[in-house]
Amino acid sequence: MGNSLKTGSPLPISTTFKLPSPLPAWPEGGDFATGVVDLGGLQVRKITTFQKIWETQEGGPENVGVTCFEPSAISIPDGYSMLGSYAQPNNQPLFGWILVGKTDASDQSGDILKQPTGYTLLSTLQASSSKGSAYFWLPTPPDGYKAVGLVLTASPEKPSDDKIRCVRSDFTDELERDRWIWGQGAVESAGGMSLYGLRPKNRGTKAQQLSVGTFVIENSTTTSDGNYTIPLSCLKKKNSSLSAVPNISQIEALVKTYSPYIYFHPKETYFPSSVNWYFSNGALLYKTGEESNPIPIEPNGSNLPQGGSNDGSYWLDLPVNQQEKERVKKGDLQSAEGYIHVKPVLGATFTDIQIWLFYPFNGPATAKLGIIEHIPLGKIGEHVGDWEHVTLRISNFDGILYKVYLGQHSTGTWVDSCLLKFREGNKFVGYSARNGHGSYYKEEVVLQGGGSIGIRNDTEKSDMVMDTGAKFTVVAADGVVEPPWLNYTRKWGPKIEYDRVNELERVERLVPTNLKSSFQSLVNALPNEVYGEDGPTGPKIKNFWDGDER
Description:
Number of strands: 36
Helix content: under 10%
Largest sheet: 6 strands, mixed
Oligomer: single chain
Low-confidence stretches: none
Strand content: 25-35%
Strand order of the largest sheet: 30-29-28-25-24-36
Number of helices: 7
């Protein structure tokens, strides 16, 4: 079985990824970027220097294999112990980490970490393109302890008990699969043995659980059993300290260092604006029962109703005057700014910096139907008020941008930093899809629906670009006074009234007879969000705000 990368060329993993520019000296304060996070008696450090244990050059993403590592012995500081091993697909530059741990002076008993009492051999792998075999060992923890990672060897001899440490149960919690790392086939569904990354089950702003950076090996036959449980645990922070989370000066420096340039499509009509510009240019507040008497909104939103639930009693809309309505719909790129929300995640070992953009209007959708590239869907997809975001996931150990989340309507995609393109230092490049404004990391056409039929999300570079770090406001972080508009919990747009059936029938009349059944399949598969009939809520109401990105 061949691979999809050029035969004979070095695989991407043979290169270690580094950000294009050296990191700045972060402003002082707290324990951010000091290299250590205290979990309440257990100190952890992030290791990024590895010793290769085994590799294969077949199977997994792009069918180019996987490489498995353990932390390099010389990179583990005195007093710290290995907690697990690391694995990465070969189709990306090496850009990984794994935690090592030690107990601190507050652990009077010195028993947070203990050696295993033995090992169980989970699996042995021998791929045709590999040199030798790989043996995956599960540490047997003492009573009251949990294993948080595997040991990998290139020989059948059991590792020594002092190779790794198990963690006392009160510092651990449940985890779940993360992304597929490798399998014996080129696609995840091929079956057989697979490696998966791991993440805590409980995630979000208040979650104290954190990843170790390790992986698990699974057999598809075993995991099909409904009683299967991953034999590892994640770590859990025991204290509530946020000392490793960046302060406001550090947040501003991080935004200026990493914030993306967002490129808009050459045919984009509907651009972002600042919220203040929108309110100052005729946006109106409506109330049920008083629809004939809408209220102009103060520039900072100070006269918007605060708190409560989205009960349908209030909504915002564009100016009444048709000419002004069409002007405001188009937004104002010059005034646009990023609205920054900062939240500690993964037991405060990482910080998520969300950059929210506001668009006064979301434009109509366009479909692709097989060989017909563009089918305008009339009013379908239109709605007033559109909030989109990207998230920077920053390591609190060293301030490095680990990955970014690109919001795409009600979902999105995590992209590792090593796959991004950068412009001017460590600021990466993103693209806003035409009309719908979902975010992507490269120029492409992504079909919502999959296959050759779906809603088009078109991205393309143009002269219209926004530097999200040039103009931004931190609206939600520790110690920050939130603007009134952020706590407006009702709709940012009205319910749009149009006859969906007639609109679809009008479009269907333009579709060739031999494609009408495909068109009907597309219509049946469209998510409700595409119809855009109801006004969206603001960023603070979305489950991205406090929860983990989806």
